[in-house]
């Protein structure tokens, strides 16, 4: 089991460019999440998908879109990158969203720099 | 609304001495509480979680945490620090019915020889 995988590991973009971050999990989890981590801020939720076919906004969704491609895959798209989106992005998955008790499992992260 | 405050942004201990990382939370309902660890340039790994069973929770690598409702605290402890414990630690709260994990800002643990 690879758990949660993310590609790419590193990316440098110019302002205005677009890109898609990919995430896949092999644990047969229903729920998937995208977070960003900024220095001194902890992790903040961008979007989540409670189950295949559904997506919802988190705390900081502006400037991002997501697609739940199937049960395994959840992608995050930046349509027009801005320097404020320079961050480390983490994908996570869990069995069930909203139970409050369910552990989220995290990928290794994508370090994105927008110049 | 749920939130977490990690009381120390940096903690430094000597190898072999006890570790205490402090966390206070606020929650409207019965919370679930977690501690995650992040080693440099790595993803987050679950250390332990509290889900309204025993108030003293044992985790991996010798860590444990005690849920104290009267003090709204969930401090993380380890009797003897190891060099490999140097990392960033996050206290996290989640309410039943909520999709959100609310992360504290993290405590950076430094272990000196």
Mean pLDDT of chain B: 90
Span between termini of chain A: 36 Å
Low-confidence stretches of chain A: none
Amount of helix of chain A: under 10%
Indicate the structural class of chain A.
Answer: mainly beta
Uncertain parts of chain B? none
Present the secondary structure layout.
The complex is a heterodimer of chains A (115) and B (113).
Chain A (H helix, E strand, L loop, with lengths): L3 E4 L2 E4 L5 E7 L5 E7 L5 E7 L6 E2 L6 E5 L5 E5 L8 E8 L10 E2 L3 E5 L1
Parallel strand pairs in A: 2-11
Antiparallel strand pairs in A: 1-3, 3-8, 4-5, 4-9, 5-6, 7-8, 9-10, 9-11
Chain B lengths: L2 E4 L3 E5 L4 E3 L1 E4 L4 E8 L5 E7 L5 E3 L5 E5 L4 E6 L8 E9 L6 E2 L3 E6 L1
Parallel strand pairs in B: 2-12
Antiparallel strand pairs in B: 1-4, 3-9, 5-6, 5-10, 7-8, 8-9, 10-11, 10-12
Structure keywords:
A: 115 residues; mainly beta; seven-stranded mixed sheet; four-stranded antiparallel sheet; 0% helix; B: 113 residues; six-stranded mixed sheet; 12 strands
If you had to describe this structure to a student in words, what would you say it looks like?
The complex is a heterodimer of chains A (115) and B (113). Chain A is mainly beta and 115 residues long. In chain A, 0% of the residues lie in helices and 49% in strands. Chain A contains no helices and 11 strands. Helices cover 0% and strands 55% of the residues of chain B. In chain B, the strands form 3 sheets. In chain B, strands 2, 5, 6, 10, 11 and 12 form a 6-stranded mixed beta sheet that branches. Chain B is globular. The mean pLDDT of chain B is 90. At the A-B interface, strand 5 and strand 10 of A face strand 5, strand 6 and strand 10 of B.
Task: Give a quick summary of the entry.
The complex is a heterodimer of chains A (115) and B (113). By secondary structure, chain A is mainly β.
